[in-house]
Amino acid sequence: MVATKTTPSAERQQDLLALMNMLGYAQNAAKDMGASVAASLINDAVIALLPCLQKELPDSLAAGSVAQLSQTRSGHC
């Protein structure tokens, strides 16, 4: 395995995207368990984090793209 060096900014971007992804999994798990209040609170956290994520990602991504990207589930938490 070849290690790749990431800049602090790139690492932070990856961390924020991972956080959004984990929140999405948590929200789905809460919904599956019937915990609608918890799912709603997690959704509020996602909405609150979107502006931070938009600031951290390259300007070439439109705000709508950032929102869609943050809601795309990939991998496993």
Structural topology:
Elements (H helix, E strand, L loop, with lengths): L7 H25 L3 H21 L6 H9 L6
Helix pairs in contact: 1-2, 2-3
Describe the structure.
It contains three helices and no strands. By secondary structure, it is mostly helical. It has one domain. Helix 1 packs antiparallel against helix 2 and helix 2 packs across helix 3. The longest helix has 25 residues. The model has no long low-confidence stretch (mean pLDDT 77).
Distance between the termini: 21 Å
Radius of gyration computed on alpha carbons? 14 Å
Summed up, the helix count is 3
Q: Pick out the low-confidence regions.
A: none
Give helix and strand order, one letter per element, not per position: HHH
Shape: elongated
Mean pLDDT value: 77
Q: What's this model, at a glance?
A:
This protein has 77 residues and is mainly alpha-helical. The protein has helices at 8-32, 36-56, 63-71.
Supply database-style keywords.
single chain, 77 residues, mainly alpha, 0% strand, elongated
